[in-house]
Amino acid sequence: MGGPRRSPAEAVASLSEAIDLIRATWDAGRRGGIFADGEQYRIRGAKRGPEPAHDVPIWLGVLGPRMLRLAGEKADGWLPSCPTSSPGDLERGNAIIDEAAAAAGRDPREIRRLLNIPPEAAGVDDLLPFVLRDGVSAFILASDDPRAIQAWGEEVAPALREAVAREREAAGTESGDVMRGPKSPGAPS
Questions:
Q1: What are the structural domains, with CATH classification, of the chain?
Q2: Tens of pLDDT along 27-71?
Q3: What string of H, E and C letters represents the secondary structure of 7-26?
């Protein structure tokens, strides 16, 4: 894509700085330009804006421990893919993200957990454990087949919502939204 080849450590640092710069760009209400003296990016007075018309969350589809820590520190969501995940990846990833979020002064519940899923793994019985055990709150169906998308929207998603509500009610689990805190501590000015 035209960018320089980076080591794994440089890739993490680069993404971390990029998240801060993206958020600074979207902060069009703040006066002055964007200045940053990062290891990967140096910015001198870049213009802010345009401000997004609505909140634009930054989701990271990562699996490595360093990137998972970055997700806990700065991301709004974690979006791994079911076909590329191994058993235990979600549990391990959630633990790393939660620990990093807490260390960064964030409530781990602020970080939305999502999952890319193939149509063949999109049944209620397949997905219910991801919601109840792993905290996944949204699934993205990896398909462009109109029939699979229609079946998901009309049948699977409503049935999954009902099953989750039943299980949570039976367990006495309260549901509710978590308010998000500041986007990125230490973002460039």
A1: 1-52 (no CATH), 57-171 (3.40.50)
A2: 999 999 999 999 889 999 999 999 999 999 999 999 999 999 999
A3: CHHHHHHHHHHHHHHHHHHH
Residues 160, 128: contact at Cβ < 8 Å? yes
pTM of the model: 0.86
Nearest to 135 by CA among 93, 83, 106: 93
- Rounded to whole angstroms, the Cα distance separating 113 from 126 reads 16
Percent of the chain with pLDDT over 70: 90
